Amino acid sequence: MSIIEVKNNTQLRMQKSLETLKVDLSKVRTGRAHTGILDHVMVDYYGAPTNITQVANVTLIDARTIGVQPWEKKMMSAIEKAIRDADLGLNPSTQGELIRVPTPALTEERRKEMVKLVKTEGEDAKIAIRNIRRDANESLKKLVKDKECSEDDERRASDEIQKLTDKFVADVDKSLADKEKEVLTV
């Protein structure tokens, strides 16, 4: 492995950590309804746990209501039960061929809990990024030990990896600030 491969691998892994954080943050409920809330809800589809998006059409009806329209009528009760059991604080109701899922307004206390959750997710992402930096630095030290690069090259590469780490940590902080603002907006 060369220094360039180490740097590219590090950047790729840090990018994946940032993308994972953004996916995790999209699941955190804010005051508005969004279909991402139901992305991880699993429905019992003929004995097999299946993602809700594979058995129904999930759309926004208005700012506070999600509409779930099953592709098979007999799946209505299973989908409704899965949404209730998902521990999201949502109470779906069936109206004809559509399941309406109103999202209740968040209380001030619940908003603060959500902000704590967002900060925890962010801290986990920062830890992952720092672990990636550590792995990259160990790889660079191994290259020096195996005499595949000089100590000067290793030092320059370590500095570049530190700059990369700082950039990704700043991106995490920005994502957290945006999500925190979104959660606290009434």
TrEMBL record:
One of its GO terms (biological process) is cytoplasmic translational termination. Residues 21-184 form the Ribosome recycling factor domain. One of its GO terms (molecular function) is ribosomal large subunit binding. GO terms for cellular component: cytosol. SUPFAM superfamilies: Ribosome recycling factor, RRF. The keyword Nucleotide-binding does not apply. InterPro entries: Ribosome_recyc_fac, Ribosome_recyc_fac_dom, RRF_sf. Its main location: cytoplasm. Pfam families: RRF. Keywords: Coiled coil, Cytoplasm, Protein biosynthesis. It comes from the Bacteria. Residues 133-167 form a coiled coil. It is found in: Cytoplasm. Responsible for the release of ribosomes from messenger RNA at the termination of protein biosynthesis. May increase the efficiency of translation by recycling ribosomes from one round of translation to another. Belongs to the RRF family. This is Ribosome-recycling factor. The lineage of its organism: Bacteria, Pseudomonadati, Pseudomonadota, Betaproteobacteria, Burkholderiales.
